[in-house]
Batch of 2 targets.
Target 1
Amino acid sequence: MNTLVQQTIGWVDNRTGLRTAIRKFFLEDVPASTGWPQVFGSVALFLLLNQALTGILLAFNYSPGPGDAYSSLTYIIHQVAAGHLMRGLHHWGSTLMIIVVACHMLQVFVYGAYKKPREVTWALGVVLLLITLGFGLTGYLLPWDNKAYWGTVVTTQITQQVPFAGAYISTLIGAANGVGALTFARFYALHTLVLPALMIFTVAAHLTLVRRHGVAPAAPDDQHKRPFYPHQLFHDVVAIFIAFLALFLAAALIDVPLERMADPTDTTYVPRPEWYFLFLFQSLKFFHGPFEVVGSVGLPTVAILAMLAIPFIDRGRMRKLTERTAAIAVAILTIAGWSSLTLAAVASTPASLTSPPPTALDSKLVAKGAVLYVKAGCDSCHQVNGVGGHIGPALNRVAKRRSKEWIERHFVAPGALSPGSIMPPYRFPKEDQDALVTYLFSLPD
Ligand code: HEC
């Protein structure tokens, strides 16, 4: 029996080189000083796989297109088995991935692991960071809720500021005439086709170079080596497990908000970017008028070029961590700057705007409206007091968001006010319309 297994393994190895490759992978030497600080790359890779897997699972039930996207997402959250969890894993996975990638870069930076001969490995790492941020930026639009819509309006306005190429770029991303179906299609294609391909290619190149030059020793005089397995593999696996545990708990316990569907008429909405872009948002406040482009395009470009230039500026020999005071000071200053900008942005976020509550309710009209509401089948899509369908937004607080006039115009042509809406148009007689609106405005919070 044993010999049969061995023969089979031998045959497979002979034909494919699989066993040799696996052995080589696990038994490759890494510096003996490698340990916990070096786990972040592996954790980032794990999180990338999580994004790919949960992204594919979401795509199986997602209908890409303004309006449909929102409805299919409500369907995923409420109806699909483990759909809520899947969305949580994808959302919090992206958040965690940004954090872990930042830790990975920070570790490489303070250890000076970007130094000769690893300059290209570092540059590819910077590209990977940009691809990751690109995923965040394009994915932000895909739920097609108000937050997604208005956030993307801000982003696309910033791209228009790019000197010379601005108009061209905004045509390219389908935002020349505002954020709409074309923008959605472009972002979706970028998020699911272009960026994944770029990501796979760049990760492969990055890992090939890591293997080619070996892991950088934590200290210059460290010539001791030992195999990747079991010592470093153990560290990596423990770190991945901790990351997975944190991610799973976040996905299971923290709801990812889904606001109401994108509403281009809602000009009172205060758009916010994803938290890791907040610092940029905040730094824009320092620039006004013609100088805005300095903050929105100039500074980020300089920051990216500076990151790429680091290995060519700092060309000294590898040093011990304790001797890298300048690098540590730069790292601390960067973190402090980033955090204070982010905190300032959070502090200046206004509480959501509310319109005055409804008054003078006619109880007879309310009763008539309640009956009409069920007769017309509104409850198949909307929830009232926790009962009803999930396709449209819950209507209990609709009076806080909408005026009577808005709702009446919306009845006749939902798509005109909420582009892509799947709510059918209704032409009620005037009294019925009054009754329905009065009923909706009478609902408790
Ligand atoms: C086929 C499903 C469907 C039916 C049936 C339906 N709606 Fe809707 N409704 C939606 C969707 C989806 C939205 C969100 C998009 C939009 O604003 O049009 C919506 C939005 C609304 C809004 C705006 C809510 C907000 O917060 O912006 C109101 C009010 C509303 N519906 C009332 C009704 C009433 C009253 C009826 C019955 C006469 C009804 N709907 C029937 C799907 C439906």
Target 2
Amino acid sequence: MNSKGKTKSVNVNPRKERALLAGVEIKSRARKSWNVQASLTELAMLASSAGAQVVTVKSQRVQKRSSSYLGKGKIEELKGIIESKKINTIVLDDELSPAQQRNLEKLLEIKVVDRTALILDIFAQRAQSREGRLQVELAQLEYLLPRLVGQWSHLERLGGGIGTRGPGESQLETDRRLVRKRVDKIQSDLENVRRRRGQARQNRFDKGLPVVSLVGYTNSGKSTLMNALTRADVVAENKLFATLDPVTRKMVLPGGEIFLISDTVGFINKLPTSVVAAFRATLEELRDADVLLHVIDVSNKNVLAQYESVVELLKDLNLVNKPTIHVFNKVDLVSPSQISSYEFTFKGIASGYYESFESVSISAASSLNLPDLLELISNKVTAKSMI
Ligand SMILES: Nc1nc2c(ncn2[C@@H]2O[C@H](COP(=O)(O)OP(=O)(O)OP(=O)(O)O)[C@@H](O)[C@H]2O)c(=O)[nH]1
Ligand SMILES: [Mg+2]
């Protein structure tokens, strides 16, 4: 639309969502590393990755959780913005309870999307493999189930009467039954897919090749590094969750050692529990790794908080006892003094999790210092084969 309100450009996508983003910081739970602004910056990237146009971002400090997520005054303020800026979607920076979502929808009269639904939407757009698609659908259905109940329960609360008898309740039962049936079917399909993949993995192990796995925050450069090391042609993009499906390639070190290197789904702060549950098998494959390469984007302003989020998740998955190389990536974008200061800080954080700390600074995009990284990998792989 031009300023006179007439449609002129042919490139405008009429269905593009015009989104308002909002988050709250609960005073008592405020975290030093992830403040609400940092989290909202990331939410904006997620929203753009999902294809929405971010029009405005708002935040609020609150005392405690409220039944409509945001406070009354803030909701009034947002109503005005929604009207004047023609917003048609609001995206919230946390997973909302079904009741919070319903309340906000009633008050704002636009589509309400929470952080979990947004992440699930991106995953659904990216999933390519059969296993990936099944995992995403499973996570989506688990997210939907309690909200399905919510869609009908407001009729019950009206206390019966005209319009609340019959189809509402039985429709809910039918919907629930259908969703549960689909969940069962997906779970059994997933088991079959995984059994087959487990066999393929077994074959690899029979060959005794060591496995090096890339882990790290989304967009840190894992796939770029995979491509730089193996010419694997994995999609690497400035998008969150560019990779969902694991990819494994063979690699030969300068000394002739052969090993497998694998790239997998990235991590993010507030990763929804439904996603962790659905992707657990993919993440648990990291247990087969002999060495983990933890790729860290040192050019990101929030890198320390990102690091902590990843290490927390690795700890939950029992992976902090694995031989790990910390790979500081994108060093082409930061000064050497900044890198040394990070090195010191990371060492401090890591000491709470790891017995020793090994790191290397590289640029995957411009293949800087890759020989140093290869040497570290080689030492670890050799150390293992000599045990
Ligand atoms: N300047 C610079 N950019 C880099 C470097 N490495 C990666 N990038 C860019 O960072 C972005 C993300 O890279 P990916 O390799 O897709 O990141 P990823 O960790 O695989 O991300 P997910 O698959 O989303 O988890 C891309 O735009 C890359 O070009 C680097 O060393 N320097
Ligand atoms: Mg990737």
